[in-house]
Amino acid sequence: MACTEEAKLEHFLQWLQVNGAQFRGCKIKYCDSTKGFGIYSTNGSPEDGVLLVVPLDLAITPMRVLQDPLIGAECRAMFEEGEVDDRYLDMLPTTFGNPVWFTDDELLELRGTTLYRATELRKKDLMSVYEDKVKELVKKLLVLDGDSERANSIFWSRALNLPLPHSYVFPQIQEDVGTTCPVDKISEGSTSHSCSEEPINEINGKRFEAHGNDSKVNGVTSTSKQEETVWVEGLLPGIDFCNHDLKAVATWEVDGTGSITQIPLSMFLISALQSPLPVDKEVSISYGNKGNEELLYLYGFVVDNNPDDYLMIHYPGEAIQNISFSDFKGQLLVAQKAAMRCLLPKNLLDHGFFATGSSNCKANNTSEANDRICNFSWSGHRKTPSYLSKLVFLEDFMTALRTIAMKDEEVSKVSAMLEELVGTEGERQPSETEIRTAVWEACGDSGALQLLVDLLQKKMMDLEESSGTEDSDSELLENACVIGNAEQQTSKEANNLVQQKLMSRNRWCSIVYRRGQKELTRLFLKEAEHALQLSLSEGN
Predict the structure, then answer these.
(1) Are 52 and 68 in contact (CB under 8 A)?
(2) Quick one: CA torsion of 482, 484, 489, 495, rounded to 10 degrees?
(3) What keyword terms does UniProt attach to this protein (predicted)?
């Protein structure tokens, strides 16, 4: 670590301690070029396991920035980020591994994936926000050097989902002039949204939350409005230097009364191990059960063979206009509260036709399937499918696909059955369950499963058209020699043989992510094709 980095760290630690932070069994030190700084255990870990305590007064949240005497008025006018002590900002990274920082060549590795389109949209959005709203503020502060990508990456790669007292999230602001987003009118659960309530981090409808853990809130919640707990995304200097690990050795908790740390209204890092931490062991936390799509998009890293990986499939809403009886089917979709997209976690495969998971997983899935059987009855003409307990695709999404795939004669059957319920005078409206049952009675599953197979085949085609097969990705990874970045790669061009195996970490992460998407697409396609065969054989 360079002397300048050591000086920055020393200044930051002094700032933390002056502001009441206490290092009781850990220290911050430089890890490596991929992780940056991290927290490590020291000699003499305390008996209570508390490693670090940071007062909540240091938390940086959107609401607390509005109080800033220098930029508060301007930030209230547009509800953007603010500034904090330079000694903290100096410690923050200047480069990141998430896709908005990729070179053009690295970004091409994501073609065909959901993340490629999301990154393109994100970069355009950041540039628009910077030009329209942030540019003048940045000139005033000279903090972010005109870099809206850095501001975005700093916040979303380090933000915690913090349980804070109401007064910390919604402070009393004396000056109200020019406020376009009144503090008392902003939803308590939506402090990460702008005035227009547009989601900040969302891909295909999946909301990405700031990382946290199974945290405990000690002595914060009460019946008083001013003291109730509000969960909000924000930064907490010091604790935000913890890196992620699936096998975390620590968790963070909030101490409202000071009964644990002797520092009221503080957050503390506590060991999760039964035995004392070894000296100089990295103190990691878990960012939660996040797939590689979310990890790469927000934090700039992936986990190979991630057990929490997932696949997102969706039926494009605009395509409904091109199907027969589009208006009627659209009304049915709304009435049934059908889902146009489906998140498929990897662990669902433990419940399917080709499951390799435990018997407990299978038993739980059977129970869930039995809960849905009540929807599969009308006149008794159609039997409950034998495969229902093995079907891994969510019923709300299957409901949407059944409705969209209905043939003309099936639409007539559904309409007739619903007319029987409503009556000639329209005495009542059919319930959600009754409409779903009518659609099932008329259509069965074969049309929906065929449409699902088509969607998954199209997804696989998009993935492979852009970057080859799953096997080709595996071969690239097997032969890869990962280096820090693309600039390092060009400096080693002398050895052509070695050069073929070198790849930047960004490219490696992209290939790991897209290979996982291809693997999940293949496995869920196999499930869908088998379910379709059973459905056709059973007349469903």
Answers:
(1) no
(2) -50
(3) Methyltransferase, Transferase
Same domain, 240 and 334: no
The answer to whether the CB of 342 falls within 8 A of the CB of 397 is yes
The reply to whether 390 and 504 lie within a common domain is: yes
Same domain? For 269 and 405 the reply is no
Burial of 360: CB neighbours in 10 Å, binned 0-12, 13-18, 19+: exposed
One domain for residues 382 and 430: yes
Amino acid identity of residue 78, one-letter, is M
> Rounded to an integer, what distance in angstroms lies between the CA atom of residue 449 and that of residue 48?
55
3-class secondary-structure state, position 475: helix
In the prediction, which pLDDT does 382 show?
A: 75
Tell me the CA distances in angstroms from 298 to 276, 290, 311, one per residue in order: 32, 10, 17
Residue 214 lies in a domain: no
Low-confidence ranges of the chain (pLDDT < 70): 1-3, 44, 62-96, 126-127, 129-156, 168-227, 357-380, 424-427, 484-500
- For the record, the structure tokens of 210 come out as 């700031």
Expressed as residue numbers, the domain containing 14 is: 1-166+230-282
Rounded Cα distance, 336 and 402, in Å = 11
pLDDT digits (tens, 9 = 90+) for 84-113: 455 665 666 666 677 877 888 888 898 989
Bridge partners, residue 314, by sequence: 341
Q: According to the model, what pLDDT value does residue 313 have? A: 95
Domain count, the chain: 2
pLDDT score for 68: 58
Considering the domain architecture, whether residues 278 and 314 belong to the same structural domain is answered as no
Sort residue 337 into left (φ over 0), alpha (ψ -120 to 50) or beta. left
| 3-state secondary structure (DSSP) of residue 231 | strand
The answer to whether 246 and 303 have CB atoms below 8 angstroms apart is yes
Residue 517 lies in a domain: yes
Task: Express each pLDDT in 493-511 by its tens digit.
Answer: 445 445 557 888 899 999 9
269 and 342 inside one domain? no
Task: Give me the pLDDT at residue 217, please.
Answer: 53
Tokens 């630690």: give the residue.
Answer: 13
Alpha-carbon gap, residue 50 to 41, rounded angstroms: 11
CA dist 67 and 54 (Å) reads 20
Burial 366-403 (b: 16+ CB within 10 A, else e): eeebeeeeebbeeeeebebbebbbbbbbbbebbbbbbb
Would you say the C-alpha torsion 198, 202, 205, 207 has a positive or negative sign?
negative
106 shares its domain with 26: yes
